[in-house]
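Re-run requested by the PI after the first attempt was lost when the workstation crashed. Everything re-entered from the original request form. Ligand of interest: FE2/S2 (inorganic) cluster.
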Amino acid sequence: MDRERRPESESDWMGRRSAVSRCSTPEVAGVKHFVASVDELSEDGSQAIVDADGLQIVVFYVGGEYHALADFCIHQGARLSEGKLTGKMEVGADGISKEYDEDHPCVICPWHEWKFDVETGRNVSDDQYVTPTFDVSVEDERVYVHR
Ligand code: FES
């Protein structure tokens, strides 16, 4: 992995701390940006992109929850919205085997296939690399991202 682009801390990227995405959270910080109607983001695996004060943010609807990430890969800048959603490999209870958890969504970067947990933004191979995430709320059947 390219370690030259590693942030010093989570708060270094975009000047904000990376936050865990939430679904339908009524009280969240940041300016609210309309993303799409609930109907437009109702199919599992669907996504929408919003420009939030100059930052492209992709909102994925997967597993019944909304997850918002900066629409760029922290490796070399590919758009994560052009990546593929998938599950997550986890180490099994024996500490050796691996189990595929399809209920734990990740996005695979289209350029070099780094894989990011869409809930936390963390690279699943090296959690020092974190894509910024944003809070999501739903009001009156409208999905908003907060930045
Ligand atoms: S740009 Fe290289 S893994 Fe995303």
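Saved to the shared folder this time. Residues 73, 75-78, 109, 111-112, 114 surround FE2/S2 (inorganic) cluster (CB under 6 Å).
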